[in-house]
Specification:
The complex is a heterodimer of chains A (about 300) and B (about 500).
Chain A (H helix, E strand, L loop, with lengths): L1 H28 L4 H9 L5 H11 L5 H13 L13 H36 L4 H15 L2 H15 L11 H31 L2 H8 L4 H30 L2 H7 L5 H9 L3 H29 L6
Helix pairs in contact in A: 1-13, 2-3, 5-6, 5-8, 5-10, 5-13, 6-8, 7-8, 7-11, 8-10, 10-13, 11-12
Chain B lengths: L1 H21 L6 H5 L2 E6 L13 H7 L7 E3 L5 E3 L2 E7 L2 E6 L13 H14 L10 E6 L2 E5 L7 H5 L25 E6 L5 E5 L12 E6 L3 H9 L5 E2 L4 H8 L5 E16 L6 H10 L2 H7 L4 E3 L20 H10 L3 E2 L5 E3 L2 E2 L1 E6 L5 H14 L3 E6 L7 H4 L4 E7 L7 H7 L14 H12 L3 H17 L3 E14 L2 E2 L17 E2 L1
Parallel strand pairs in B: 1-10, 17-18, 17-19
Antiparallel strand pairs in B: 2-3, 4-5, 5-7, 6-7, 8-9, 9-10, 11-20, 12-19, 12-20, 13-20, 14-15, 15-16, 21-22
Helix pairs in contact in B: 8-10, 14-15
The chains are: A mainly alpha (about 300), B alpha+beta (about 500).
Chain lengths: ~300, ~500
């Protein structure tokens, strides 16, 4: 296992390098000039001379490979660069936002697991019963409602009508509840359906029939056999959702004023703020690959037949 | 399994109850007695340095900083920290008010003002020329600025919030601290988040009515609306049309003020690609009143680039006349085909309209397409993400939409020189007129404000008469206040004023 983990961590390096290169290249070829955007943001008339001077100051007139290599070398020295937009160090800009995004993503993830696993198993056991249809209907609705609409509905009911929560979240524990709910409801809807399918498949297998024939209690079979054997596909789905949670909460963060990283990244993409985007990509890549590594390790523990 | 369902529901209720009890949702008695204005803003600051980029706009909104001059509700300049100013050729003599001080009690002197101007020049490229000026201190309250050439709009520049006067020796690097002259001082600042300010007890210009204010970062307009409805904020500017409609239905609870501001929606007609008769036909067709109506209170139709209430906004244009527009096309040899489009030599009259999807320009593009279709001109829309890097830079369009602040500092020169002068970055549709250029050169050095307005009106009128541009609408500044809130600069067309010493709440 130790060797496996070291091997997987080593594989992380080319993956991250590849990702950063790809992002850098995509930004480089996309329309829009960071120097021009910077000048326009500053209200400076973009004459050719001023533009050329600004490009030179920002290092944008260097060949693509040189720009990428410079960025990479600085990164290896712990320097993520300076934001083109406002001159703030990238690490400083990302540090605070990442923390809050991580808190939000984790709480949404935990809430999703707590609710979706029991409900998923329940709908599998009660397949085609009325309660199954009701939950399935709610899951379809949960998947279909766009999260910005869901967020506004939640604010309207919880804050304005019921006055349980304030609209202004201020990054507090109290303010965490509604964004967590808004982020996790679509996930719960998706998870329940996927867990249900995985559990139904297991419930039809011979070992379940055998266990029932031997008089083992239904709850024991469901929890210790069916759930455990369904976990491989469940964990895969859960793992994939981490990336969505970390990178896809822009709208939710904006609506709830959660001080995460989403808005910062969107603004940086619009402003062609390469250093900030690259910093974000590298952090996300590390999180994503580490989560996948943890999932692979979980596979091994859940089913020892799965080889390293 | 039913038990687990019940357990989940019970857990959910427990979580809701626990979370709702976690926060500090009640005001303490001290806060109840204090007058703290809570508001939302759709922008966010990383540092408090007013001299950087446009940051002075925001420190001015927060009531922290002031400049030597101020732009008033009638779009004219008046002294604020300055007492008076006189010019003699390229030398300006500025007198500062006597016995005025920063929030820490330090006196404002000529030295500190000169240092502030030089500091802004060094770090803000829009004011880079200030590093080349020669400054001379006459006494503690008087100094001169000598510019290379005659610079009639220097006072307008000195009214820019970026040229705020700050106690440079006691503000650190201005990342989180700021000692300035405004009616409020920072009590807490979270870079990228909320800023709280309290009354400046040493304010030089009289009593400050509020005890403090809190500015929350709310990028989503719906959040501001709901926070206002929930009573968590008291006032905010940049109200959307939908929200304004809601507030307007409750006049006892909210006061809504809408005025035309300075951000202009306009189109450029490419003289290199479309004939004068077609340009004229377009301008006779585009109905800015109808556009104003459709955009539901967010804009006010305009004739020229500046508000008609200003001295330099007195221009005229032909009334909408689609029959005359059609007649012009027909005179030019175009014939209406069975599909309702004009064509000549078998080719349908098709124009390319380039736009970008911001500041309602996408809606404007569609509306213009519809209006032009009604007179038989086919319009193909091209949406670009980056107008400055594409159609503005290349001139590859028949009609180009753009939106910019036309009146930055109570003077027409910025907009005129940016859009109508030879080689200007936004003169990308081939407009070239020797008379205009002569007038622009005169405007550059004219010091009399009445004559400046007259020159600007002549210049813009030529552009309108030549059908080089179409000025559609000025964005409105809409401010909402709870009843009892007064003086949040709601009647000032400039976005960079909000909190001031007279802001009050019942």
């Amino acid at each position: 296992m130790k060797n496996y983990i070291i091997k997987r961590l080593a594989q992380l390096i080319p993956i991250i390098l590849g990702l950063t290169f790809l992002t850098f290249a995509l930004l480089y070829i996309s329309p829009g000039d960071p120097a021009q955007k910077k000048l326009i943001a500053q209200g400076v008339a973009t004459t050719t001379e001023v533009l050329e001077k600004t490009r030179e100051e920002m290092g944008l007139n260097q060949p693509f490979i040189k720009q990428y290599a410079d960025w990479l070398v600085n990164l290896l020295h712990g320097d993520m660069g300076i934001s083109y937009k406002d001159g703030t160090p990238v690490a400083q800009k990302l540090e605070k936002g990442i923390k809050y995004t991580f808190i939000l993503a984790t709480s949404a993830f935990v809430l999703s697991i707590i609710i979706s696993i029991p409900l998923g198993m329940y709908t599998a056991v009660r397949k085609n019963y009325f309660s199954d249809y009701v939950i399935q209907f709610l899951c379809f609705a949960g998947n279909a409602i766009p999260n910005f609409l869901l967020a506004i509905i939640l604010i309207y009911y919880f804050c304005i009508r019921m006055k349980i929560f304030p609209v202004i979240a201020k990054g507090t524990i109290q303010g965490l509840f509604l964004p967590t709910l808004a982020l996790s409801l679509p996930l719960i809807s998706r998870f329940i359906r996927q867990i249900r399918v995985a559990a139904i498949e297991q419930l039809g297998k011979d070992y379940v029939k055998g266990a029932r024939a031997r008089g083992i209690k239904e709850n024991y079979i469901i929890i210790y056999n069916v759930l455990r054997n369904s976990m491989i596909s469940i964990i895969t789905v859960l793992g994939l959702s981490i990336g969505t949670l970390m990178g896809g909460s822009v709208v939710i963060e904006s609506i709830f004023m959660w001080p995460g990283i989403g808005k910062l990244v969107m603004d940086s993409i619009t402003a062609r703020d390469y250093p900030v985007i690259q910093g974000f990509v590298i952090i996300m890549a590390i999180i994503y690959v580490v989560v996948n590594l943890v999932i692979d390790i979980c596979y091994h523990f859940l089913d020892p037949r799965i080889k390293e | 399994m039913k038990k687990s369902l019940i357990a989940i529901l019970a857990m959910f209720l427990v979580i809701v109850t626990a979370f709702s009890g976690c926060g500090n949702n009640t005001d303490n008695s001290k806060e109840l007695n204090e007058k703290i204005l809570k508001t939302s803003e759709s922008f966010v600051l990383e540092t408090l340095n007013p001299h950087l980029d446009y940051q002075g706009w925001y420190t001015s909104i927060y009531g922290l900083t002031e400049a030597l001059f101020v732009m008033n509700d009638k779009s004219s300049i008046e002294p604020l920290l300055a007492e008076s100013a006189e010019s003699d050729g390229n030398i300006w003599t500025i007198k500062i008010k006597k016995d005025i001080s920063f929030s820490n009690g330090n006196k404002i002197t000529s030295d500190i003002v000169i240092r502030n101007l030089q500091d802004t020049g060094k770090i803000n490229s829009r004011f880079a020329y200030l590093t080349e000026c020669i400054y001379e201190k006459i006494d503690d309250n008087t100094f001169t600025i000598t510019t290379d050439d005659i610079y009639p709009t220097l006072l307008n520049d000195l009214a820019s919030p970026e040229l705020a006067i700050v106690d440079l020796d006691n503000s650190g690097d201005m990342s989180t601290e700021l000692v300035a002259t405004g009616p409020f001082v920072v009590s807490s600042f979270e870079p990228g988040g909320t800023i709280k300010v309290v009354k400046n007890e040493n304010y030089w210009n009289g009593e400050v009515k509020l005890d403090g204010a809190e500015f929350y970062y709310m990028p989503e307009p719906d959040t501001s609306l709901m926070a206002m409805q929930n009573g968590e904020i008291d006032s905010y500017a940049s109200v959307t049309a939908d929200a304004a409609e809601i507030y307007a239905k409750a006049p006892d609870t909210y006061k809504l003020v809408t005025i035309p501001a300075t951000r202009l929606q306009f189109y450029i007609l490419n003289e290199n690609r479309i004939d004068s008769s077609i340009r004229k036909a377009i301008n006779l067709t585009i109905d800015s009143k109808a556009i104003e109506k459709y955009l539901n209170g967010t804009v006010s139709s305009t004739v020229g680039p500046f508000s008609s209430t200003t001295a330099y906004g007195k221009v005229t244009k032909d009334a909408i006349d689609t029959k005359a527009a059609k007649a012009l096309l027909e005179k030019d040899g175009y014939v209406l085909n069975t599909d309702g489009y004009y064509e000549k030599d078998g080719k349908i009259l098709t124009l390319n309209l380039a736009y970008y999807a911001a500041r309602s320009l996408d809606t404007l593009a569609t509306l213009m397409q519809e209006q032009l279709k009604d007179i038989g001109i086919k319009v193909a829309l091209t949406c670009e993400e980056d107008p400055d890097g594409t159609y503005i830079a290349t001139g590859d369009f028949d009609i180009a939409l753009y939106c910019m602040i036309a009146d930055k500092a109570c003077d027409p020169y910025y907009f005129v020189s940016c859009t109508l002068a030879e080689g200007a970055p936004y003169n990308c549709g081939g407009f070239s007129n020797s008379e205009t250029q002569t007038l622009i050169d005169k405007l550059k050095v004219e010091t009399n404000s009445d004559k400046r307005a007259e020159l600007a009106n002549q210049i813009v009128q030529i552009a309108i008469d030549e059908d080089a541009f179409g000025y559609v609408a000025l964005f409105n500044k809409t401010t909402v206040m709870k009843t009892g809130i007064t003086n949040v600069s709601e009647n000032c067309p400039f976005d960079f004023y909000f909190l001031n010493a007279n802001t009050d709440m019942q």
